[in-house]
Amino acid sequence: MKKLLCILTTVLIYTNSWAQLPTIVWSYTYSDGASINCIKQTSDAGYILAGSSLGKYWVAKYTGGGILQWEKTYGGTGGDVAKSIIQTTDGGYILAGNSMSNNGDVIGNHGSVDYWIVKISSIGVLQWQKTLGGSNGDFASEIQQTTDGGYIVFGNSTSNNGDVTENHGGSDYWIVKISSTGVLQWQKTLGGSSDDLANSIKQTVDGGYILSGSSASNDGDVTENHGSYDYWIVKLSTIGTIQWQKTFGGKDIDNGNQIQITSDGGYIVAGKTNSNDGDVTGTVNSFYRFWMVKFSNIGVLQWQRTYSSTNINCSALNILQTADDGYIVGGNYGGNGRILKLSTSGNLELEWEDAYRCPLVSIQQTSDDGYISVFKSGIYNFLKKRKLQALSINTFKSQGLKIYPNPVACDIYISTTNNRLLNKIQITDLSGKVIIEKNQLESKERTEEGNINQINVEELPYGVYIIEAFSGQEKFVSKFVKN
Fold first, then answer.
1. Do residues 109 and 212 share a domain?
2. 362 shares a domain with 409
3. Per-residue model confidence (pLDDT) at position 93
4. What's this model's pTM, rounded to 2 decimal places?
5. Fewer CB near the last or first residue (10 Å), C or N of the chain?
6. Which structural domain range is residue 149 located in?
């Protein structure tokens, strides 16, 4: 595979004392037609990547420093796309995705698109493969290894024959449990008469499973619909029996993507919404916003937050819990990858956008408290490793400034704790770029209360900003969040 090593870049991080500490990031660009869909860190602190190249499954193994160790393709001539990969307990890997082939490495296609499960060794040698599905379209989204050494595969099915014993109408959730050697143990379809779109599955501490996706149904297994598509969360037993299910959303479209089990035993889902009623609160407009939903281990809503940028469609793809019990969220604002750091209660602490200015595919936390991200634009795939220290609004040491409101949507008011007259104010983003600068502040920018300065920040993009204010030779520093 052709590889172009991009220049090393430096990321500036603000600590509680507002010092700038450089962090080295390595980046690679791929431009030979491969498409990366998934990345995971491996037990040796390296990385395994999966996707497609020339109509086949493509897998590449890299060291922790970004050096290619090996790459392989698997498949036939019909078109095969890997969607999910994990390292297995034997040191090898298992892949799940979609195949239309019935030759080459692919044996037993049932018709149209099937789930295709591929088990490989630690160096990419094909050990076994399995096709699962019926005569219509069956699309795998995610695979996880289970505590018994087997695997659970989650995706969508429109079939009603072959390995698929039931269809409720349209596209259903389809969950397949296989043994460590690929033998089908059980399968379940879940849904209603409309489309039910699967995205993410995790095994729970009781040996069962938690599922997330979206549903437009209001019958069958789906007991409630708020309008259009809702987040649809389903808790299953170890043998696939529904224990409880819950829809979250409003009257418009709410699409749930990744689900994670949280440190308190509950769950959190990241996705998108353009609703503003029902379970959803946030800015009123017709554009999609990031929507995080946190709920208990029995589906009771604990909190929900929307995050948006004015007049731009947004979608959260990945969510990860961090060591401080907060969250990292990866997604896209318009066509640009955007990453958010949230507190344990969902408050925004940090936000950044990578310089590629193209959509984020995936972000994963790494063992060195960093992050590995994949971005995609046309024929180009970008892989970026960075180590980033979380920035907290609550722990940032304000140096002599009073600012309010914080977070702010329109006008922010700035004064010093010792009531000094300010002659210059700068607002910078987290890279240090000056966004707004006011010199020789005019009286109209001060309120009637005295030395309180008013600055309109309505046009700033959603995110975290630094304020530097000057009174003669004296400098004051603080930080605010733009909603």
1. yes
2. no
3. 98
4. 0.77
5. N
6. 38-55+68-366
Interval 299-348: pLDDT, tens: 999 999 998 766 789 999 999 988 778 898 999 988 888 888 899 999 98
Query: Nearest-CA neighbor of 378 among 420, 419, 335?
Result: 335
Residue 116 and residue 133 in contact, taking contact as beta carbons nearer than 8 Å: no
Distance from C-alpha of 372 to C-alpha of 41, rounded to nearest angstrom: 8
Q: How many domains does the chain have?
A: 2
Residue with tokens 């204010």: 469
Helices (H), 98-194: none
- Please check whether residues 179 and 243 belong to one and the same domain: yes
Task: Name the helix (H) or strand (E) containing 39.
Answer: strand 35-41
CATH code for the domain of 412: 2.60.40.3080
Q: CA 454 to CA 168: how far, in whole Å?
A: 58
Residue 13 lies in a domain: no
- According to DSSP, the β-strands at 254-261 and 267-273 are antiparallel
Q: In the chain, helix, strand, coil percent, each to 5?
A: 0, 55, 45
Structure tokens at 479: 């930080």
Q: Give the whole-angstrom CA distance, residue 227 versus residue 127.
A: 46
Please count the other Cβ atoms lying within 10 Å of the Cβ belonging to residue 335.
Answer: 11
